[in-house]
Amino acid sequence: MVELTTPISAEEIHALQVGDAVSLNGVIVTGRDAAHKFMVEHFIRQPAMPEEQPLYAELMRLLNGGVIYHCGPVVKKHDDDTCSFVAAGPTTSIREEIYQQDVIAHFNLRGIIGKGGMGPDTLKACQEHAAVYFHAIGGIAPLIAQAVKQILAVHKLEFGIPEAMWVIRVKHFPVIVTMDSHGQSLHERVKWQSQEILTALLE
Fold this sequence. Notes:
- This protein is of the alpha/beta class.
- The chain is 35% helix and 28% strand.
- It has one domain (6-202): Fe-S hydro-lyase, tartrate dehydratase beta-type, catalytic domain (fumarase).
- It has helices at 10-14, 33-44, 53-63, 97-107, 120-129, 141-145, 186-202, and strands at residues 2-5, 21-30, 67-69, 74-77, 83-87, 111-114, 132-135, 148-155, 165-179.
- The chain starts with a strand and ends with a helix.
């Protein structure tokens, strides 16, 4: 298993191939539909407004060489006002396809974690900007939550707990590279193999 710690270098990304098992460590940020839409509309398509400049600067710092996790966590608040993740399973990633290419390029993102894979625009961005797609296993959200060791901050909580941007520290977060920086996608490979099998069965 490959051990990676954020921030991740381009060289480390280029060394990865589809099928590689990776243990992720360091700080990552969760982000789903609302977060991606917000980043594109408020930071990428136009300059950040003065009131959003601190958040923009923080995201530029966190995502430069970093990882964004398509996740809508279940969060528990404790008596001392701290929070912890109860469940942290991956969200279906294809919903972010319309945004992901721009987010990768603008923030110098190195990795996306999710489930189900993404499309050709994201795969192209991975090639052009040295990034990969990490597939996290669905259905084991409580187990994945054990890899979340600390919640460092939360941004845009007004989007709701699942859609907010949670800044978390992870240790030994298990993922598989299914889209790499060399243009390979296991999701496309499985798709075409499935179509070939279906065609053969229908003949």
